Amino acid sequence: MVVSLIALFVALGGSSYAAIKITGKNVKDGSLTGKDIKKNSLGTNQIAGLKANDFSPGQLPAGAAGVAGPAGPIGPAGAKGADGAAGAKGDKGDTGTGGAKGATGPVGPAGADGNNGTDGADGATGPAGPAGADGAAGTQGPQGSAGPSGVVGFASASGPGPNAGGVGTTVEFIGVAVQATIAAGNKVHLTATKALGSGAAGGGNALNLWACSRSTAPGAPIAQAGGGSLGMTVPQGQRHQYSINHVFSGMAAGTYLFGLCGSSSNPANWNSNEFGYASILVFN
C-alpha cells in the first residue's frame, strides 16, 4: 500500500520533523499495523486511495443492503443425495379400474403327450352325410343267357257261338271260343263277352256263366274255372252284355279252346241273343 510520505511520517514521528525522506519502497509490505498508526492521524485525503481489498475481512462495516439484482441463471443440478430411510407403510389404496385386456401371448411349446385315457362310451350315430359322387363305371360283365319271354302268343275272335248263339241246359260255350296251343308252364288270360236277352213272357232267368276251356283232343270235356256267376236274369224285351275274364294256369301242354260258357234251366226264354267276343294272351 502506498501511503502519503508526509502523513506517514507525521503519524510515526508526531510533531518532529523528518529529516529523512521515506517512501513506500522503504516500507515492507505488511510490516505496518493499526497499532503503528496514531488514532485520528490520517485524514480523508491520506486514505482516499484505499480500496476494499486493502482491508482485512471484518475491518470495514457492512453498508446498507443494495437493491436486489436480477436472478442469475439456474445452476446445474447437484449430485443425488443419499436415499432417506424408508417411511412407514401407507394404507392400502382403493382398487383401481381394470385395465384393458392385453394381447394374446404367443402359443407356448406343446407339452409331452399324456397317457391314453380309457375309451368312452360310443356316442349317438350322427346323421348320414351327403351322398358322394358316383364312382367310375365298372367293366361290363358277360351277357347272361336269354330268359323266357313274357307274352308268347295271343288270339281273338267274334261270332254267335255254338248252339245257334243260344243257351242250353248243359254247360257249353255260349259265345265264340278262341283256340291256342300252349306249352307246359304257359298261362292264358281270357276276356270274353256275349249279348243275351229275352222276348218271352217273364223274360230270361236261371242263367249260369263261367270261364271255360276244353282240349281239342277228341272226347275231351269242357272245364269250368272258378265258382261262376249264377242266377243271371233279364226282363222281357231287353238284351244285356255279359262278360267274364280269367287267367288259366297249371295246364298241360296242348291245344285248347277258351271262351264264355253257361247253361240255364229255362233255355227257351233266352231267345234274343247277339254276337260275342273273346280274346286271349298266352304268357309265361
Find the structural class using helix and strand composition: mainly beta
Major sheet: size, sense and barrel closure?
Answer: 5 strands, antiparallel
Please give the alpha-carbon distance between the first and last residues: 166 Å
- Percent helix, as a range, is under 10%
From the alpha-carbon coordinates, what is the Rg to the nearest angstrom? 80 Å
Q: The CATH topology of the domain at 151-283 is what?
A: Jelly Rolls
Oligomer state of the chains in this structure: single chain
Question: What is the H/E order?
Answer: HEEEEEEEEE
* Helix count, DSSP H or I runs of 4 or more residues: 1
The portion of residues forming beta strands comes to: 25-35%
- What shape does the CA trace take? rod-shaped
Average pLDDT reading: 83
> According to CATH, what is the class of the domain at 151-283?
Mainly Beta
Instruction: Please tell me the CATH architecture of the domain at 151-283 by its name.
Output: Sandwich
**Count the strands?**
9
Low-confidence spans: pLDDT under 50, at least 5 residues? 1-19
